[in-house]
Write a structure and sequence with these properties.
The chain has 106 residues and is an all-beta fold. The chain has strands spanning 17-32, 35-44, 49-55, 63-76, 79-94, 97-99. The protein has a five-stranded mixed β-barrel.
Amino acid sequence: SSRKREVSEWFGEVGKREVFTLKVVHTQSFDGHFGLSYLHIFIDGRGRKAKWFSSGECLEKATYEIKATVKKHEVYEDRKETLLSRCTVVRKCDGNQLVQPEQLSL
């Protein structure tokens, strides 16, 4: 199968802001205390899982270069996950072609 397997590993350093290349594999909307929120689940090139909770911004299923702060490393259902905060899209990776942020409609 060409589908990457999830790897139970954390990435990044807690509290550090970095740029990561991440693929959105799932999004889920829910009503929170501050209105509609979204959970994004990402996988990186090595199959490691990350989550980002956002309010009002929902990314489509694609691969992005994302600048984010590693909020914490956690374990959910016996699997390591990296929780991200303050995510901003640097650019969208469209196959081999990179799309600049001003061409994105978020």
